[in-house]
Design a protein that fits this description.
Strand content: 15-25%
CATH class: Alpha Beta
CATH architecture: 3-Layer(aba) Sandwich
Largest sheet: 8 strands, parallel
Order of helices and strands: EHHEHEHEHEHEHHEHEH
Distance between the termini: 9 Å
Shape: globular
Structural class: alpha/beta
Number of helices: 10
Number of strands: 8
Length: 323
């Protein structure tokens, strides 16, 4: 059992619309907190969208996701997992970005995650645009390339934008492969769809051995069969999970910068995350929630519900301080 200090505030003790919001109503444990070394899984916000090339707004995602997450309760209704009793979880706050300098921001993100990972804490991140994943991987994969399961409507494997810009939300995983942070033969991308400029990104994937499962194949086979293949690809070695909210159809999750029609609905969005169970997830992120494009907050609530599913899968491998 985890320490009660790390349990979320119950809605029976304080109404969910009251109090200062933290991720899932967990305690706020910043990097200077004396109990930081006791944390097993840290929820982190990265309010940054300097890699965005279309509609901005994901810099506001972590704040809306925190607010929506007050509706998350203690038990997974489908699996019965009670993550907050299994391991010590806490909200570690936000990485402070530099919105005027993309490289300085990436250095800040990597340094923040270096502190977290040095203590054996597994991070669950709320972005931020998808470039956020690259500086996180620079920390988590510092010693050995990771596998990755990637849910998205885009591959994010392009080489450059606008005649040579190498760092955008469309390039992070090209850079991660080039920098040796990802083992491409242990990478699978699920849900890819939409119109395209060309096939450069898919040609790169083929050349290095990344498995792409387009949305047409996803629907033909179904989520359980697809996720079984994903588990087979990453195997039992350390794996990162990156979940772009635009994997989901924009009729369900309109609050994102680069929507693509023809995606899965809300149930499948949760199910694929639930089917990550058994994978050695050393870190995960949920990115590209853009509050200005969904004033209802529905996209954010789906986002934190996905984060909760990923958290429930992460607890089986996270170390516990009470064992």
């Amino acid at each position: 059992m985890s320490d009660p200090f790390f349990h979320p505030v119950s809605g029976f003790d304080l109404p969910r619309f009251a109090g200062v919001p933290t991720f899932m109503r967990l305690p706020h444990v910043n990097l200077d907190h004396p109990r930081l070394p006791e944390v097993d899984i840290g929820l982190i916000g990265v309010p940054w969208d300097s890699g965005t090339t279309n509609r901005p707004g994901p810099r506001h995602g972590p704040r809306q996701l925190r607010d929506a997450s007050t509706m998350i309760r203690a038990q997974n209704g489908a699996t019965g997992v009670r993550p907050f009793e299994a391991v010590n979880c806490a909200d570690l706050g936000d990485v402070p970005p530099n919105p005027a300098d993309i490289h300085d921001s990436m250095e800040r993100i990597t340094a923040f995650y270096d502190q977290v990972s040095s203590l054996g804490i597994r991070p669950l991140t709320a972005g931020g645009d998808h470039l956020t994943s690259l500086p996180i991987l620079r920390s988590l994969a510092r010693n050995k390339p990771l596998g990755m399961i990637h849910f998205d409507s885009h591959t994010d494997l392009f080489n450059s934008y606008f005649g040579g810009t190498k760092y955008t939300h469309g390039t992070p995983f090209r850079r991660a492969v080039e920098e040796g942070l990802l083992d491409p033969k242990r990478v699978v991308q699920i849900g890819i769809r939409g119109t395209a400029y060309d096939m450069e990104d898919r040609d790169f994937a083929t050349a290095v051995g990344i498995r792409i499962i387009p949305i047409e194949e996803y629907f033909e086979r179904g989520p359980r069969d697809v996720m079984q293949e994903a588990r087979d690809i990453v195997g039992y070695d350390p794996t990162y999970v990156s979940y772009d909210i635009d994997f989901v159809d924009p009729s369900v999750a309109p609050g994102t910068g680069t929507p693509e029609v023809g995606g899965p609905g809300g149930f499948d969005a949760l199910l694929v995350a639930r089917l990550l169970a058994g994978i050695d997830i050393v870190g995960a992120d949920l990115v590209e929630v853009s509050p200005p494009f969904d004033s209802s907050g529905g996209t954010a609530f789906l986002g934190v519900s996905i984060m909760f599913e990923m958290l429930c899968c992460m607890v089986t491998r996270a170390r516990t301080h009470n064992q």
